[in-house]
Every structure is written in structure tokens, then in C-alpha cells.
Amino acid sequence: MHHEEYLSSAARSTLRPIVIRGEGEHIESLTSYIGRLAWHHSVKPSLLIGSLIDPGKSAGFLNHEIATSFNSLTPKTAAIVESVATQAGLASHMVAAMTFVHLHDQIDHSARGFIRKTKQWCPVCYHEDHSNGGQYDRLAWSLQGVSHCVKHRCKLRDYCQHCLKAQPYLSTKCKVGFCHHCEQSLTESVLSKRADVDCKESEVYSSLVLGIVDQANAETESLESILRQIAYMFSAEGIPRFAEFLKMDRHCVERWMTGETKPALKSVQRVCGKLKVPWADVLMKRMSASEIIESNKRSRSKIQWARRELDSERELRVVDGEILHDDQPCARKVRSAAAIERIDRYLDQIISGKVKPYSRAKIASTLGVSSGYLESLFGQKVKTISEIYKKYLDDLSVSRTELLKAEIYVSLQMVYEDGEAPSWSNVGAYLSEDLQKRFSMTEIARIRKEAIPDVFSGRYQASAQKAKRKLGLVK
To answer: Which residues make Cβ contacts (< 8 Å) with residue 431, sequence separation at least 6?
Structure first.
């Protein structure tokens, strides 16, 4: 039954499609669909994936990376969606509904802490599916934040009740609903303990499942567009004040709004928590920027949200986009502004050449701040100073080497004129104690070794005698 000829001998370009089970938040996951599709064609899932869907993948891939690649939101997931849609003859948006690829442009693509590495399931759902024509895994079950079934409000299982072993997302031995190790049913006759309070977080995460929606007609407002509108409605000063309100790095927030990077899921939760709006509704575009702003206007004073012109008399000059103005600046902000202005003057003096350049760590230590803080506020100036410091070290290295070389050449010349061998003791006798303290023995030995062939060659001695006669030192 399980042989490669079944796949390679067929001349058709697509597989026989099967119906996607579930709808809305209870829609089937892509790993479950591929597993059912494989058994429908009487082949193992590993063979189907390695031959048609993702050629070259080994069977071990099913145990470790299958969910983070197939059910997730990474670029790899988008490629798998297109492959399955082509092979199974389905529309791309129907296959994409079995993944979280709709969040690809919203949060960080790495999916760290987003998808579980091992499978979990609801035994009650399996029992109902068995009566309704076949068991399947829900997409929401693969989320790290989902621990309860939102339908039956019972805790999900992540191990077999018979052999007590964790289950892979795709089994090469049996169909969905049976243990990969002992092949016993994963359906329990006794319901798991219900926990209504713990179901709230699972409900929020489960709402990230989009379901089958035509992506061409979906909402197009991106997360960075929403954040940008909120930032400039929050304050006339835009990103700097908004980043201070979030208590996050300004440059990080700027990169989110320009689309250079995507925020991680935890960062989205933190931002929405500060704005007091449901983070899942923002990610799923069920709340627009205007609704978020209106929601915050009701909970915040009108003065805080009103656009204001900067008052030059109350302005606090803070470098690189920090807070420039506050109606009633507290003592801490005044001290912070003064400290940043002092750092700015010191960096300007280094760039202008008035102060000797040092490394970033040395400058940060001198100013009493961390290197990361210095780079976050004065990124361009720190970069310029690093280049100046590097050039300073290069010039210093060259000047030290030239000084040492000149001293050793003089010492070797005196050894040569005395008719002695250029040994270490003879050369060192003509070097000053100060020079021997300033340079290491390794440096002196290296320069001496390089200079001996030059000093004791006939051509060098001829040029040296010619120079001495020109100076009148010899006849």
C-alpha cells in the first residue's frame, strides 16, 4: 500500500482533493489536512510531503519542525500553502485559512513562542468527530497560548493516557485520533476537569484563527499603519512621546512603523496593554486605528490627546528625538535632559578633535551610562566616534612601530660598527630602559629580526656611508 510508485506513476498534476473540516475558530490545521490527504491516497504523510509538497524533507522533520513550518506564519508557510493549493487543486485562500499566514505582515516572522512543538488535543472533540465522520486537529490547538478547548471548556491533553507519551503532529503509523506509539485511541470516556477561568486566555488566542475568508476582500490596514496613526494622534511630537509612553526604545518603535522590522507577539501584547485595547482584535484587524483612538480618548484627558504647538519658553533641548517639551516637567525629566545635553556636548568635542577619542565602552563608563543607552540615543555620533577611534589606533600603531624601528636600526648600526654579532644582548645594550618599558619583548624581537638583514647587507652599509659623508661625519 505504501510505495512511491503510487505517486510517481500518476500523470495528473494534482491530488484528489478532500473537504476541509471545521469552520471559523474550529477550522482544521494544515498538518491535519495533509495527514488526512495522505491516508486518503493510501500513502504515508512523510512520503507525500517528501515527494510532492516539500521535496527533500526527511521523516524526522515530522517530529520536530512540521508545525512551525506548516501551521505558522513564516515565509516557509506561505510556500507550503501554495504547494498544497497546487497539488490538491484548492484555492490559495482556503489552504491559507488552515494556517496563521494572515499574520505574516503583522508580527515577527520567526514565530518564537507562537507555535507548540508537540501536539495537543481535546478528547471530547475527538469523540464527537468520530461520530460525525472523522477526527481532525483544530488549528487553534497548535498555538502556545491555547491550553483549553474553547468549545467544551476542558483542558487539552498533550500525552496519551495509555502509554503517557507525547504525540507528533503527523504520525507515520496511524490516522488522526490515535497514539503514534501504542496506536490506542486518544479519545477519553471521562471528561477532563473543566476550568472556566483558565479558558479566557485560550479564547483570546483562538480568536487569531481567521477561517476561510477571501484575502482579496480582507481589510488591508497594517499594524504599522495603525501604530503610526496612534503615535501622531497621541502627541504632536509623534514617535518620541509615544515611545516614552510605551516605555520602549524609540528606535525599535520607529523600525516597526517604517516596516523595517515586525514586532514580536509579546511586544504587540505589551503595546495593546498600555493602550488598554484587546491585542487579538488589533492583530485580526477587528479594531481600526480610529476606534483605538476613540477608546483611549474616553479614558484619558483631552489635554493629553490634543495637538499642541511647542512652547519655546518651556522647551527642554534633548538630543536625537527625546522628549522636547512638557507642560510641567518634573525634576527627574529636567535632570535627564541636562544629562543628555552634557553627553551630547562631550561627543561633539570628541568629533571636533578637542578631546582625545576613546572606545564606546570607555566613553560610556566615563559618562556613567551603559553602551546600549549611549548607542540608542546617539547612534550616528557613536558610529562616527568609533571610526575616529579606529583611525587613531591605526595611526598610533604606525607611529609606535616607526619609533621602535628607528631605535633598533641605530642600535644595530652601532653593533655593526663595533664588529660584534647582532645578538639580543648586544642590541639590547644600546636600547634605553624607557624604550624597553614601553614596548614588549615580542615587539622588539620582531623588529630586530626584520632589521638584521637590512643593516648587515652591503647595499645598506654603502648607502649609510654615503649619507654620513654627505653630512661630514666621515671622510
So the answer is: 407, 408, 411, 444
Whole-prediction pTM: 0.59
CB-count exposure of residue 312 (10 Å: 0-12, 13-18, 19+)? exposed
d(CA 137, CA 447) in angstroms, rounded, equals 73
**Quick check: helix, strand or coil at residue 180?**
coil
* 41 in Cβ contact with 15 (< 8 Å): yes
187 near 127, Cβ under 8 Å? yes
Residue 328 makes CB contacts below 8 A (sequence gap 6+) with none
Q: DSSP string spanning 197-222?
A: TTHHHHHHHHTT---S--GGGS----
In the chain, the N- to C-terminal Cα span, in Å, equals 106
pLDDT along the chain (475 residues), means of 10: 42 72 88 90 85 76 73 87 88 89 81 80 88 87 89 86 86 86 78 65 86 53 77 65 80 80 85 85 81 69 42 41 44 62 85 85 81 79 87 73 76 76 75 74 78 66 60 57
- How many CB atoms are closer than 10 A to CB 331? 7
d(CA 432, CA 413): 15
Q: Which residue type sits at 320?
A: D
d(Cα 147, Cα 196) in Å, to the nearest integer? 12
Query: 44, 175 in Cβ contact below 8 A?
Result: no
